[in-house]
Amino acid sequence: MAKQIRTVGVIGLGTMGAGIVEVFARGGLTVIGVESTEEFADRGRGILTRSMDRAVSRGKLDEAGRQEILDRITVTTEMGDLAPADLVVEAVPEVLELKHEVFGRLDGIVAEDAVLASNTSSLSITAIAAPTKHPERVIGVHFFNPAPVMQLVEVIHTLRTDQAVTDAVRDLVTGLGKRPVVVGDRAGFVANYLLFGYLNSALTMVEHGHVSREDLDTAMRVGAGLPMGPLTLMDLVGLDVCHHIGDVIYGHSRSPLHAPSSMLERMVVSGRLGRKSGRGFYSYEGPGGRDVV
Ligand code: 3HC
């Protein structure tokens, strides 16, 4: 188990999946990205190309380097194309049934010693591994948003994960220039469990009219030295994603710290999902960037 990892498959090319493809390709690995439809595949290609273009325009990458990275990436709608992968990272939407469908099919596609990983932000890796015949090769690799920038990767082992698999994935993450931490399989793992208690407290303060959105963000950015305040961060992550993660963690912790926020729920239902929808706690629709709404 756990041969050297040279070819990686990534299933789901949304913001996180496409970012993960970029990380692996920049690290010199061959990457096969899989999407369910041509339309989503094109969206994934678009995310990748824009990110590469930004790196070129910032002088971080030259044209030849950009092409070299893109040449390592194939995007397909056929899961069967994952056959040569030594590691597959699933980054499909956070719906357990969807993850089960993916993991159920992978056994029949990849080699017996390939590693199967999920980038879930909060669902149980043990539960995701249920349909596979080889749960000992299933592991979590949780990247943070934006994946090409954020250093941390949580490597989540279950009670069944083979130690050699954990070691191989931790070493791979280190080789990519990221910082792995190895954690057990509990809701929210480590970083999101703690982070979402904090984000939820911020929501409660705004909901109760204790502080304005901008002042709250300024307090944490300037006072606690964080790169962005909690509301700006939720807009970046996506309010629907935050809502889902909060729900999963609360389902396990039952801690008042994680209790669902009705304001967040209202925003999600009204389609205010943060940056990706143009509006969240702030508006991203105007030419000047961001406004309070
Ligand atoms: N994709 C790729 N690269 C990006 C990017 C993106 N979406 N956004 C920014 N970058 C790159 C820029 O190109 C730039 O690269 P360079 O230094 O090589 O030129 C670098 O990041 C800095 O970007 P900017 O100068 O434009 O902006 P900032 O300095 O304000 O940094 C930020 C932006 C990196 C997003 C920073 O504000 C930050 O670190 N914010 C906190 C993010 C965070 O906490 N993420 C974790 C969220 S929780 C999570 O992901 C868990 C999950 O389960 C939900």
Automatic annotation (TrEMBL):
3-hydroxyacyl-CoA dehydrogenase NAD binding domain span: 7-185
Pathway: Lipid metabolism; butanoate metabolism
GO biological process: fatty acid beta-oxidation
Molecular function, one GO term: NAD+ binding
Domain 3-hydroxyacyl-CoA dehydrogenase C-terminal, residue spans: 188-284
UniProt keyword annotations, A-Z: Oxidoreductase
Family (UniProt): Belongs to the 3-hydroxyacyl-CoA dehydrogenase family.
Protein name as catalogued: 3-hydroxybutyryl-CoA dehydrogenase
